[in-house]
């Protein structure tokens, strides 16, 4: 889903992951991976633009920590 769209290839990859690893574990790992990437992205934003640091706590609390 690098292009931001959830198309047939993304759904096929998810189905394969679930078949190979089981639904519960596949879901846990997938959510953890997406959450980690989201957290890193917010850090990149604040490192590139320090004026965004005031928002970083809220992003992490409301968008990242809320998924865990």
Automatic annotation (TrEMBL):
Lineage start: Bacteria, Pseudomonadati, Pseudomonadota, Alphaproteobacteria, Acetobacterales
Residue spans crossing the bilayer: none
Protein name: Peptidoglycan binding domain-containing protein
Domain annotation Peptidoglycan binding: ranges: 3-63
Organism expressing this protein natively: Roseomonas populi
Signal peptide limits: none
